[in-house]
Design goal:
Length: about 400
């Protein structure tokens, strides 16, 4: 039996999981204020007079205010100079104030009134006049942009990505610490999930276990969970029907949780039973490709070069080329913190230079249609000296969690 795969009851595996949330502190008011100041400095450099952060992860990032986007305008206006202000429906003002972390004036509109008129009036009060440029975050719905432009204010509405992505891609020390904790929690859950596998278990049963295991370590549950067996592992995001585990099946589990809004995202692939030579060969090629991404990820390196390095490594192992299968059908990696996918993206064509504080996955999945797939996913943060793993990669197909190595006192 592969070390760590099978052999344990569900009850014993859950009992062995300790609470892991203690000491993880949420982002506080000083950091939110610093983020706004950083955005304002960037706005002055970019010639943008104000930025609108719509409900969702951008509003949460800059203000700490958690609000699900809907058909009503809720968000924050950040001028290049001066105090941030909120915009919300009048009947929601009390709730907005209750959720608010970073203080600011709340400007409201009644249901029969135009939020777009209010938006433009607040910009004017901030000193933003035509032909000034106003950045709208990428999460802003088209209906809102359309409503603003129809008023013919003379303002130029532009994509706020040069401001917002610049800030969000570079994580603070506290953000890195929260991301680290989330990954430690999910890795413990991954190990527990592997231990309860047995012939006849369904992917739905494993998903339910992972949900409970994430709660046991201190999360509210799984933020997402993909469990695949056998041929279904060749589909990066799964198939509609659940599967039943059989001997010699490839197992792929991709899951994560949230710690104070910051996300983990770890994938492990291994065989239930004895790996075939074909499974071993593809698994080793996947590990090599993941290592190639880490080796190429250096401060100042364009994201596209990391993806290219991975595809060269895959081609050297007889896979690809490009997106051809068997091989890698998607980008090498993505950032994932407040959103499950956010910049930077490790993909050909993206010239973004890797910089200190950036955090992203290395997951160059190999898909072999009709047979199986292998994805090994761990995340990296860029330190001034270079890349650092949040979790150590899986050592081998015969020891996917390094348990045999630990038993022999070996280190990676």
């Amino acid at each position: 039996m592969t070390p760590g795969v099978g052999g344990q009851t569900r009850e014993a595996a859950l009992a062995a999981l300790p609470p892991m949330l203690e000491g993880a502190e949420p982002i506080g008011l000083p950091e939110y204020a610093a983020r706004v100041a950083k955005a304002q400095a960037r706005m002055l450099e970019a010639g943008i007079a104000a930025v609108y952060a719509h409900a969702g992860s951008n509003l949460a990032y800059f203000t700490g205010t958690k609000w699900n986007p809907s058909e009503r305008m809720v968000g924050a206006l950040i001028p290049a100079e001066g105090a941030l202000e909120y915009i919300a429906p009048a009947f929601e003002e009390g709730t907005v104030r209750d959720f608010m972390v970073l203080p600011g004036a709340v400007n409201t509109w009644h249901e029969h009134e135009s939020p777009y008129q209010l938006f433009l009036a607040r910009l004017a009060a901030m000193g933003v006049q035509a032909p000034g440029r106003v950045g709208l975050c990428e999460g802003t719905p088209f209906y809102l942009f359309d409503g603003l432009r129809q008023l013919g204010s003379g303002l130029e509405f532009v994509n706020a990505r040069p401001v917002i992505a610049h800030c969000r891609m570079r994580k603070s020390e506290q953000e890195v610490a929260l991301i680290q904790r989330a990954h430690e929690m999910t890795l413990a859950v991954q190990k527990a999930a592997a231990s309860v596998l047995h012939e006849g278990i369904s992917t739905l049963e494993v998903e339910a276990f992972i949900q409970e295991a994430h709660r046991k370590v201190g999360a509210k549950g799984s933020f997402f969970c993909i469990v695949l067996f056998g041929q279904a592992t060749a589909f990066p995001h799964g198939v509609e029907q659940p599967q039943i585990l059989k001997d010699a099946d490839m197992v792929l589990i991709d899951t994560g949780c949230l710690v104070h809004g910051y996300m983990s995202d770890i994938t492990r692939s291994y065989v239930f039973g004895q790996p075939s030579e074909r499974q071993r060969s593809i698994w080793n090629a996947e590990k090599s490709a993941q290592a190639a991404a880490f080796a190429a990820a250096r401060p100042g390196t364009p994201c596209c070069e990391v993806d290219r390095a991975v595809r060269r490594d895959l081609e050297a192992n007889g896979l690809g080329p490009g997106y051809t299968l068997p091989g890698l059908p998607h980008r090498t990696g993505h950032g994932t913190r407040l959103d499950i996918h956010e910049g930077p993206y490790l993909v050909d064509g993206d010239p973004t230079l890797l910089d200190t504080g950036m955090c992203f996955s290395s997951e160059p999945m190999i898909c072999v249609p009709g047979e199986f797939g292998v994805r090994l996913e761990d995340h990296i943060h860029m330190s001034p000296a270079g890349p650092v793993w949040f979790t150590q990669p899986s050592p081998s197909i015969d020891d996917p969690f390094g348990l045999a190595m630990l038993a022999h006192g070996e280190t990676k």
